[in-house]
What does this fold into?
Amino acid sequence: MKATVERLPGLDEPFIKPLPEMAPAQFEQWVALLKQRTGMRLPDNRMSFLVTNLGMRMRALGITDFQAYYDYVTTGREGIVEWGRLVHHLTVHETRFLRHESVLALIVQHCLPASPADCPPEPLAIDVWSVGCSTGEEPYSVAMAIDDRMRQLGAPYFLGMMASDISRAALATGRMGLYSRQKMRDVGPRWLRNYFTETDDGRFQVSEELRKRVCFNHLNILQLDDAPIGKMNIILCLNLLIYFDREQRIQIANTLADHLQPGGMLILGVGELLNWEHPRMKRFPYANTLAFQHQ
Ligand SMILES: C[S@@+](CC[C@H](N)C(=O)[O-])C[C@H]1O[C@@H](n2cnc3c(N)ncnc32)[C@H](O)[C@@H]1O
It folds into this structure.
């Protein structure tokens, strides 16, 4: 039995009331909702994960019955708002600065000018999209890598970095751009100096210049049809496709390919999409990456 918190009339302190067991049919119902709305497959052995995370929201609302909570989430305007909160608890947001160093190296070496002589006279426009950006460490890492390289080249440029995710809470953290010291462990001293300011409480604030370049947007990767997204030079979709089945992975990769400029690069997580073929995309071999270039 899982526990939930209720308040007894006349008592200030909450008491713990156990949640009922989740029936297999109820589990199936939640699994189907999750799959339909986020694309995520929840395997049978994740029932306790589901129960724990639903329980967190149910406790906050004082709901003690899984079915009542399901009905609440799937009905009316309040349900839409609650779904937005719940989805943050049911998705995995693990990320960190410089998590994908080989991806940054690929971008610096193959998506940017090789030398000052290769830089165009007018500012270079670079459009990047980080899909499933979580709390912002990935888009900021890419923005730093690009800025660092363009500074070395002494070339003016415009960076448009779109960072999207299904979790509004994760996006809010990204927008704030304020991270604990622990989160900075992989960021070297030069980048720390150039792109962060230490705050009085020992956290690190991403520089305003960098934050201005990253635009955080709420976007469900399964609902891109009407999203006003231009053509990108680089699209990153890392540690997201793993939550989808193969058919959806292919569909998503096809859609992302349509959002690339000719010559643009789609970078997926290593091993996240095997044997994908697309008429306009060619595998771009680079160590420890899974990249495809738009022809
Ligand atoms: C494990 S994180 C990956 C973060 C980052 N890309 C990295 O590799 O460090 C996966 C992110 O995908 C987001 N996500 C899950 N399903 C999604 C969907 N259907 N549409 C958009 N984002 C989704 C989650 O909210 C989560 O922040």
Q: What stands out?
A: The chain has ten helices and twelve strands. The mean pLDDT is 93.
